Amino acid sequence: MSVRALLPDAATPLSHESAAAAFADILDGRTGEEEVATFLVTLAEREETAIEIAEAARALRARLIPIAAPPGAIDVCGTGGDGHHTLNVSTAVSLVVAAAGVPVAKHGNRAASSKAGAADTLEALGLDMAVAGALAEQTLADLGICFLFAGNHHPAMKRIQPIRQRIGRRTIFNLMGPLANPAHVTRQLLGIARPDFAPVYAAALDSLGAEGAAIVSGEEGLDELSGAGPSVVLTVGDVSLAPTIVPEDAGLVRAPLAEIRGGDPAFNALALRRLLKGDRNAYREAVLLNAAAAFVIAGRVESLEDGAALGAETIDRGDAEALLDRWIAYA
C-alpha cells in the first residue's frame, strides 16, 4: 500500500490539531516507516510537550479494544526505562490494593529495558497470560483485578513496534501507553523516570480528564515512589498528596535501591511470592509506600500512614497471596 508524507515538522511544538492529525496518520498506517522514525526521534530530542503527549494518548484511546470496569477502578503503573532494574513494585502493589477491595485494572507489557516486566513476572508466578487476557473483564468483575496486556488491546501499535525497536530509544510511545488504559480508568498512580519532566506529564494527564491521579518520580530517576529517599509528586484532580514524599511520611524505613534490585522473571516472581508470605525487607517497604499512595488516590484512606497500615494488614492476613492464587486458578 502506498503511503503519503503527512507528518509535520516535529522540530517545532505541534498544535492540538496538527498533533492529533499526525498520530492518527501514524496509527492508521498512512505514513512511511522512515518518516515515522524521524518524527519520533525529533520529538524526543527536543522533548515532547503536554499537548503532543495528550493528543497521542487520545489517538491511541480511540483505537483500543476496551473492557468494562467497576466504579472506582484504578491503575498502578510506570513508564519504565528508569534503568534501575528493580523488583516488580507496581505489580505487587496492584495485588495488595486489589486484595484490600479497590479494583485494579493493571495495564502492562513484557520487559522492554528490564529483565522482567509485569507480564513476565506474573507468568513466572503461574498466571496464564493468554487466559488472563481473554478473561480480563471477567476477573476484574469477579476478583477485583485483571492484567491488560498491551498487545491484546492496542492493535494499532502492531505496526509501530518494529519501528520503536529499530530506533532503540525512548519515544513518545513510552509516555502515551500508561495514559491509554483499556478499562478507561480515571484514577491512577503513574510513575515516570524523569522528575524534571513530571509537570509536563501531569499537564497531559490533566487535559485528558483524570478524576484523580498522581504523577510520581523518585529523585534518583525511578518510575515509582522511592523507598530510598525523596520523590517528586504532582497531583491531578481531587487527590491530596504532598509535592515531595519520603518513606517516613508513611511510617516506613528507607533502604538503598540496591536492596530491591531485581533479576529475571523467576527471581522476581520468587521475591514477590515471599513478599506476599510476609517477608519484611526493603521490597515490602517500597510496596507499602506505593500502595499507600494508591489507597489515597482511590479515596480509601486519607493519609499515607493509614494507607501503609492497610497494605501491611492486607499482606499479613494473607489476603494478597490468596488473591494471587485465585487469579492463577481462575479459568
Describe the structure.
It is a single chain. The protein has a single domain, classed as Nucleoside phosphorylase/phosphoribosyltransferase catalytic domain (Pyrimidine Nucleoside Phosphorylase, Chain A, domain 2), CATH 3.40.1030. The longest helix is centred in the C-terminal third of the chain and has 17 residues, at 282-298. With 331 residues, it is an alpha/beta fold. The protein has helices at 16-27, 33-46, 50-61, 89-99, 118-125, 129-134, 136-142, 150-153, 160-167, 172-176, 198-207, 265-276, 282-298, 304-316, 319-329, and strands at residues 74-78, 104-108, 145-149, 187-191, 212-218, 231-237, 244-245. It is 45% helix and 11% strand. It is globular and about 55 Å long. It has a 5-stranded mixed β-sheet, with helices on both faces. A two-stranded parallel ribbon has the order 2-3. It contains 15 helices and 7 strands. The model has no long low-confidence stretch (mean pLDDT 93). Strand 4, helix 11 (198-207) and strand 5 form a beta-alpha-beta unit. Pathway: Amino-acid biosynthesis; L-tryptophan biosynthesis; L-tryptophan from chorismate: step 2/5. Catalyzes the transfer of the phosphoribosyl group of 5-phosphorylribose-1-pyrophosphate (PRPP) to anthranilate to yield N-(5'-phosphoribosyl)-anthranilate (PRA). Mg(2+) 1 binds at residues 90, 224. Pfam families: Glycos_trans_3N, Glycos_transf_3. Residues 73-320 form the Glycosyl transferase family domain.
